[in-house]
Design a protein that fits this description.
265 residues, alpha/beta, Glycerol-3-phosphate (1)-acyltransferase, seven-stranded mixed sheet, two-stranded antiparallel sheet, globular, EC 2.3.1.15, Glycerol-3-phosphate O-acyltransferase, Plipid/glycerol_acylTrfase, glycerol-3-phosphate O-acyltransferase activity, acyltransferase
Length: 265
C-alpha cells in the first residue's frame, strides 16, 4: 500500500466516523433518539401546563455551526438545559422565538453540548443518559473540604474537553456553577474563552426555579411563565482584555452582577 492510498483510507475512515459519531465518540443516532425522547417527555413543561416565553433567538439563527459558547444564569440542574435543547433545535429548523411546532425534534441539533458537574451526572442511569445526549462533565474547580478550598487538578483536562465541544459545535455553560442567584462567576470559563476564542452569546432565564425542584425533574407548580432571553454576542478583545474584565462583561450580560442584585433587592 503506497502513502497516498494509506492517507486516503485513513482520512476516509476519520471523515466517515464523524458522520456517525460526535467529537466524544457518541453515536449520533442514539443522541437523536435521546433528544427526541426527552423532548417529547418535557414538551408540556414549556408549551403546556407551563409556558416558555422566548426573546432574541434572531441573534442565534445565523450563527456559525461551530465555536459558539452560550453563557447563562442557572436555576435548576436539568430543566434549564432541556428548555435550551428545545430552543436550539427549533431555531435550527427555521422557527423564531417559538417552540410551538415540536416537529423540530425529528431533526435535532446533535452537535450541541452543555457543561455539568461530574458528581451530578453520576447519580444514576437517567443522568448518564442525559450525559450521552450532550453533557460535558467536569469536576468543580473549587471544592470545600474541612474549611479548606482546594483547586481541582483536572482544570486543564476540563478546559480541553470544552474546547473539543466548541470545535465540534455549540456549548452551553453556566459560569456561576451553581443555581444560587447572584453567585460570583468562576474564572475557568474565561480561560476557555481566551484559549478557543468562540463567539460568546449570553442567555438570561427566569421562572424555572418556581416551576421545578432544584434538579429540574419534579414539577413544583403549574401555570408558570418561564422566560429565556438571548442577547447579542458579547464584544471582547481576547488578547488585550484581562480575565477580570471578561468575567465582568459575562456577569453583566447574564444579569448576575452586583448591580442587578441591588435592583432585585
Amino acid at each position: 500500500m503506497n502513502f497516498h492510498s494509506f492517507f486516503f483510507k485513513k482520512h476516509f475512515r476519520k471523515k466517515k466516523s464523524t458522520l456517525f459519531r460526535d467529537a466524544f465518540g457518541n453515536f449520533h443516532f442514539i443522541k437523536r433518539f435521546l433528544i427526541f425522547t426527552f423532548g417529547c417527555i418535557s414538551y408540556n413543561r414549556y408549551n403546556g401546563f407551563n409556558q416558555l416565553h422566548l426573546e432574541g433567538t434572531e441573534y442565534i439563527k445565523d450563527l456559525p455551526d461551530k465555536k459558539v459558547l452560550f453563557v447563562s444564569n442557572h436555576q435548576t440542574y436539568f430543566a434549564d438545559v432541556f428548555a435550551m435543547f428545545h430552543v436550539f433545535c427549533s431555531v435550527k429548523n427555521g422557527f423564531v422565538n417559538s417552540i410551538r411546532n415540536p416537529i423540530y425534534l425529528l431533526n435535532p441539533k446533535v452537535n450541541l453540548y452543555y457543561v455539568a458537574a461530574k458528581e451530578t451526572m453520576n447519580q444514576g442511569f437517567l443522568t448518564k443518559l442525559f450525559t450521552y445526549s450532550g453533557g460535558i462533565t467536569v469536576k468543580r474547580i473549587w471544592k470545600k473540604n474541612k474549611n479548606k478550598i482546594n483547586p481541582s487538578i483536572n482544570i486543564l483536562s476540563d478546559i480541553t474537553r470544552m474546547g473539543i465541544a466548541l470545535n465540534d459545535g455549540w456549548l452551553i455553560t453556566f459560569p456561576q456553577g451553581t443555581t444560587q442567584a447572584f453567585a460570583p462567576g468562576r474564572r475557568g470559563i474565561v480561560h476557555v474563552i481566551k484559549k478557543y476564542t468562540p463567539i460568546v452569546v449570553p442567555i438570561v432565564i427566569d421562572g424555572f426555579q418556581k416551576a421545578y425542584d432544584k434538579k429540574g425533574i419534579r414539577v413544583k407548580k403549574k401555570g408558570v411563565l418561564q422566560k429565556m432571553k438571548f442577547k447579542e454576542p458579547i464584544q471582547m478583545d481576547f488578547k488585550k482584555e484581562t480575565t477580570d474584565s471578561i468575567m465582568e462583561k459575562i456577569m453583566d450580560a447574564i444579569e448576575q452582577s452586583p448591580k442587578y442584585k441591588k435592583d432585585n433587592s
